[in-house]
Write a structure and sequence with these properties.
The protein has nine helices and twelve strands. The chain is an alpha+beta fold. It is globular and about 65 Å long. It comes from Uliginosibacterium sediminicola.
Length: 389
């Protein structure tokens, strides 16, 4: 008997249906041998979609699995990310990997998205080669310190960027980007800048120094912060900086997102101390959850102890599997205490995700339990970025 043909789930394209099947098979696999079967076929399909620029198909499959099958969603996301960041110049003999070196920074002035001179690139290549990358790899760096707004948008654009850098690495060249072609960078008190490049190594050979026997990841991070920081700090004049260990692009971006949350709190306390001459012990922090359909983030406002005017605010977004059952409020309170802020008001009421209609800035919780605009004292606000992050 001929089977009736079933309609596609939620009108998903045929390629998206195929992604669901392969990702679900990989997530349910019970052996390494079966893993290799599913992973190979999933990788081939993802590669073809990335090359064709079918971003919508990739996102449709991810969106469907996010609600329907968490394990398959993670398997598909891993496959897409790994393929987007690891295009190969010569698949039979070489492996390529897009890497990022995040730099956390804050300044009461504008944080530059700097163009890197040939000399600066040469110095950074030396330090990456000495402390982060394995021996005998090829490296191409982009000549820009990217702001988050300027990074490749989407998986297909990331894959194209990986390929461009890989081609430059094969020629032992860096990739020149016209800064005029990049989006304008919004001004924040605290932000991240990214040094981005592609590494090429022999297939199966180490890419990072900690894959070799003589160094650990922790030691590599310490050496990079010291020596790489000496190269990067002059490029970010007027900024306090903290370096995150360079690694594979998506992993580095996630680590930067995670590290930037406590860094932004520390930066805010230091900013208020240096700009308004208010030491941490004279600050009150107000912490509250903000919801859309679910808990999206915590917002932290700062007031002086002797009044309730919200001077400044920080957003602490939820990441990964964090939800309202996570210990995020305790993490925030510990960071505040480590900064010397001892008066902390934790609000339990649900705030909506409100923003200022005029400037788009987030609204922050007041000690009275209202969402208000953060306003610096007038005499201190002239040189400060309009958006407080």
């Amino acid at each position: 008997m001929k089977r009736s043909r079933l309609g596609r789930r939620n009108g998903l394209p045929q390629e998206a249906e195929q992604l669901l099947w392969l990702a679900s098979g990989l997530a349910e696999s019970g052996s390494r041998a079966e893993d290799m079967f599913w992973d190979s076929r999933l990788g081939e399909l993802v590669d073809s979609l990335l090359q064709a620029g079918d971003e919508e198909v990739l996102n449709a499959a991810l969106d469907h699995l996010f609600a329907a099958n968490a394990g398959a969603h993670d398997a598909l996301a891993d496959a897409i990310e790994s393929r987007a960041e690891s295009g190969a110049a010569d698949p039979s003999h070489r492996q390529a990997l897009l890497i990022a070196a995040p730099v956390l920074c804050w300044s009461r002035f504008s944080i530059p998205a700097a163009t890197l001179s040939p000399g600066a690139l040469a110095n950074l290549r030396v330090q990456l080669g000495a402390h982060v990358l394995a021996d005998k790899v090829k490296l191409s760096l982009a000549n820009v310190l990217f702001s988050p707004d300027q990074l490749p948008q989407g998986y297909c654009e990331t894959a194209r960027f990986t390929a461009e850098l890989a081609q430059a690495a094969e020629r032992n060249q860096d990739l020149k980007i016209d800064p005029e072609t990049l989006p304008e960078t919004a001004r924040f008190l605290s932000d991240v800048r990214y040094l981005v490049g592609t590494v090429i190594a022999e297939a199966g050979a180490p890419i990072f120094r900690w894959q070799e026997k003589d160094i650990s990841r922790e030691l590599a991070a310490t050496q990079w912060r010291s020596q790489g920081g000496a190269c990067l700090s002059p490029l970010l004049a007027g900024c306090a900086t903290e370096l995150v260990l360079p690694e594979a692009y998506f992993a580095a971006c996630r680590q930067a997102d995670r590290a930037s949350r406590p860094y932004s709190v520390r930066a805010s306390v230091a900013f208020l101390a240096t700009t308004l001459d208010i030491p941490p012990a004279r600050l009150r922090a107000v912490v509250a959850p903000f919801f859309d359909r679910q808990l999206e983030e915590y917002r932290i406002s700062f007031t002086a102890l002797d009044n309730g005017n919200v001077m400044h605010g920080v957003v602490w977004p939820l990441l990964g599997a964090e939800d309202d059952n996570s210990d995020v409020p305790q993490q925030i309170q510990q960071v505040l205490r480590d900064c010397g802020v001892n008066v902390i008001l934790q609000l339990d009421q649900r705030f909506p995700m409100e923003y200022c209609d005029d400037c788009g800035s987030p609204m922050y919780p007041s000690p009275d339990g209202e969402a208000v605009h953060a306003e610096l004292p007038e005499e201190s606000a002239e040189q400060v970025p309009r958006h407080l992050h």
